Predict the structure.
Amino acid sequence: MKTNILLPLILVVLIALFVSCGRHTSQSQDLDVSTVDELDLDKYLGTWYEIARFDHRFERNLEGVTATYSMREDGKIKVVNQGCKGSLDGELKRADGKAKTTSDPGKLRVSFFWFFYSDYLVLELDNDYQWVLIGSSSPNYLWILSRTPQLGEQTKQHILDKATSRGYDTSKLIWVKQKAE
């Protein structure tokens, strides 16, 4: 039953992503979406906590959001995004997808429905793989992820400065509630 509810939701999200990725606004032309030069997938795999994100329908009102990446037998990456609806104790919502690498080490292509893929751009990455700033080819998507449920204020400010210098309006970020470690 959960699959019957999630499938139409994922389809709507992917169509919205597909349409928005094709739009070129003046803001998107001002963005620096260059990716990291190196991405060690073995270090990147595992669970990441969503610290902040731009608002979008497919994660609206979700708290305690995580993204977990693991290798599949076919060489693609298994992606599991999940969060709790409305509160940290709310109903668990989950979306399963896949990602594939590209010739650009910092660019992945992610799909949650059939063969519709969207850009997943690793814009900034901590040397020790403790936090990451993720963007898309659309200016409407930005995420801050961390290996821990919370980030220190100095680290948060450092990431915000990086995002701002790339042209993102960080005042639009939604700070996601996470359970304490």
